[in-house]
Amino acid sequence: MDASLIQQPLTLPTGDMEIDNQLSVHHLVKAYKEAMENKEAELAEVITRRISKKVGPTGEIEEHLLYYSFQPLDKETDYFTQESAKNFDGALEAFYKIFPDGMISHFTANSVILEAKPRDAEALHIIDFDMGEGMQWSSIIMALGRKQKELQAQQYYGHIPHYMTLKLTAIKWKDEGSGHDVPSWRKFEETKRRLHDCTNPFGLILEVEEVELQDLARKMKGKRKGGERREWLAFNFMWALSQLARKRSRRHVLDFVRTAKEILASISVYSNTSNRGFWLEGLRLSNESLLEAKEMVREGEAPYAVRIEGENYNEMVLEFRGTQLIKFSARKL
């Protein structure tokens, strides 16, 4: 095993730790994800057995879902796997509501993108590290769609409307599926159709594409040279969230970050900023976003807490009873 691949040591709850079952299971699920990412099959199997002993089919909905997700792969449970695939969307939505790490990450990212976008931008272009089922983007589509409706209404008052285009670029990884089959209902075209369905009530111009990472930098550099429409670019990077159905390796992470740096460096050149160098500064998160995030996790009633930290107050942290679950960071060129 390559020790350089391990970012943090795997920590499993022991019997003498004073920790409730819910937090214990959460630690085990996180440890299972790390074991799978590090290709430690034997450790993942041990963790699977421990989780299966802590959850059952008659508990709360999250316990029920975890019970069938972490059963040994024999003929009987393979049947459950096939049947659960038919209800994938419902199960994914349930996980999204149960575990707030994805919901808070998506909300914070969308808020930052919308707040940072210049008012006169003709297009908002988001490059997404792992689009998955596209759950993050329905809310941003609705927000931009409502704004589009307001701008269209200005036609009646003699103003020239400013039409906004939202472009979503999903990265197409060559080893899609990471060694296991990716069912047709999770493929890109289905996600694209679902996102376009969200735009129907609003009339927003939506473009959704899938590009291989090695082609992305070349394509973006060509656009900058061509001097196309005024476009606001955002990189969306979510990794190791419980709602992401696919697991990306650390190699994927490094490749994406490297490509993003290449694109941003080229933008700094064409923006005449090369003399001062290439640097990303922290983008301050708003108090409104913090208050809304606290309300989403029911801070004070539920065992979750949200806070903002960082030198420029550009990081948001979600905690469960003092244990950090996720950290979100926002930066700009």
Automatic annotation (TrEMBL):
<dbReference type="InterPro" id="IPR005202">
    <property type="entry name" value="TF_GRAS"/>
</dbReference>
<dbReference type="Pfam" id="PF03514">
    <property type="entry name" value="GRAS"/>
</dbReference>
<keyword id="KW-0539">Nucleus</keyword>
<protein>
    <submittedName>
        <fullName>Uncharacterized protein</fullName>
    </submittedName>
</protein>
<feature type="short sequence motif" description="VHIID">
    <location>
        <begin position="124"/>
        <end position="128"/>
    </location>
</feature>
<dbReference type="GO" id="GO:0006355">
    <property type="term" value="P:regulation of DNA-templated transcription"/>
</dbReference>
<dbReference type="GO" id="GO:0043565">
    <property type="term" value="F:sequence-specific DNA binding"/>
</dbReference>
<keyword id="KW-0804">Transcription</keyword>
<dbReference type="GO" id="GO:0003700">
    <property type="term" value="F:DNA-binding transcription factor activity"/>
</dbReference>
<keyword id="KW-0805">Transcription regulation</keyword>
<dbReference type="GO" id="GO:0005634">
    <property type="term" value="C:nucleus"/>
</dbReference>
<comment type="similarity">
    <text>Belongs to the GRAS family.</text>
</comment>
